[in-house]
From TrEMBL:
Domain Response regulatory: 5-119
Keywords attached to this entry: Phosphoprotein
Membrane listed as a keyword: no
Protein name: Response regulator receiver domain-containing protein
InterPro entries: Bact_response_regulator, CheY-like_superfamily, Sig_transdc_resp-reg_receiver
Recorded superkingdom: Bacteria
Record carries keyword Phosphoprotein: yes
Biological process annotations from GO: phosphorelay signal transduction system
Segments crossing the lipid bilayer: none
PROSITE patterns the UniProt entry points to: RESPONSE_REGULATORY
Amino acid sequence: MTGRLILVVDDEVLIALLASEVLTDAGYRVVVAHDGRAALEILRREPPDAVVTDYMMPRLDGLGLALAMRDDPALRHVPVVLTSAVAGDVLERHPGLFFSFLQKPYDLARLLGAVRDAVGAPGAPG
């Protein structure tokens, strides 16, 4: 299967489904996880081209996920788009860890734009 692979991680099922639908409709391949630990399992099986993750989640939050990715040589190059209603000062405390940030509730066009900025168009050469 061709197309850029995006991992969407959000414990809010409807948000994950909506983000997945928008990205799929735009031509990306999408896989969904509902917490950071499940996301790490997916990441280690098939590293995606980018990750869109919520900040506050059970088992492993978006910060923990991004830190684990940074510590893994096979995953540290994967851009991470953080989404949150309450990210606090996580961006200031971890400069450069996240490719971009979307404040929840975010506009779906902004989500698509952030992913395109991170990885390019769905069928663009890597």
